[in-house]
């Protein structure tokens, strides 16, 4: 007896995760999502959105039919919420702690949210909350960092490794 062919579900790619994040954010704000809203927020064409939404529907992440509103399924909400949270944690760390400009922080957060393991995201979030909960530490450290940044004139991996007591690879 032959086993029936079971089609493998395609993997959820970073691009599709971004769509779930965008849909999650719009749905949380407006209650329902239009393809045009996704296109505007993601800076892509409506036809690109339609293709992605059809794939997400086939994967069970959204409810969708042509020319209608788009809603996340429970499965889609879970992933969208997770990616939005990861983006927020990285964005807060990069902008508020590392003092990157908002655009660089956002672009970098978007790249990191798909590849960094969950336990590291959680730890990073805990660190941000720790600093925010300690006003005495929070208020002074950024100015001190700007004033005393020892790597400002010489920012190389060797200098950082030497400063931290580590050895360079290949040494």
Automatic annotation (TrEMBL):
Pfam families: Fe_dep_repr_C (PF02742), Fe_dep_repress (PF01325). GO terms for molecular function: DNA binding; DNA-binding transcription factor activity; protein dimerization activity; transition metal ion binding. Residues 12-73 form the HTH dtxR-type domain. InterPro entries: DtxR_MntR_Metal-Reg, Fe_dep_repressor, Fe_dep_repressor_sf, HTH_DTXR, Iron_dep_repressor, WH-like_DNA-bd_sf, WH_DNA-bd_sf. Keywords: DNA-binding, Transcription, Transcription regulation. Belongs to the DtxR/MntR family. In the presence of manganese, represses expression of mntH and mntS. Up-regulates expression of mntP. This is Transcriptional regulator MntR. It comes from Desulfovibrio intestinalis.
